Amino acid sequence: MGLIYRKGKEKLNYLEEKPEVWRARQLLYPKVTETMLIEEISQSQGVPKTQTKAVIEALKNRLQHYMEIGHLVSLGSFGSFKPVFNAKVAETKDELTAEKVKVVKIAFFPGGDFKQMLHSMSIESTEQAFLDEEEPE
Question: b vs e for 96-121, b when ≥16 Cβ sit within 10 Å of the residue's Cβ?
Fold first, then answer.
């Protein structure tokens, strides 16, 4: 199974005439939590949950450490994480200060395994229509 979408009509509220169009929206599934991942990894690899959790915590800690000091962190064919920011422009060099930085985020660049998964992922339709309701998180 891959991505599943459903079809529905929506009004384009940003246009003056507000035409109705058909739109595909991804069907969302419940979130996979860190606890669920730890349990599955522990079970599939035959490693105690405490060790699995310790390795994941150490990985998160090191990712955070290296990105806080500006490093791109590569996890091989999994992908790379890189801290990035957007800043407002300034008229002069002296006006260009750290306060001009408005958005700081982490960019993820998928590696070969993820790219292959995306290219081979199936996309299917379901007959469940949607209304203008909000998607659950």
Answer: eeeeeeeeeeeeeeeeeeeeeeeeee
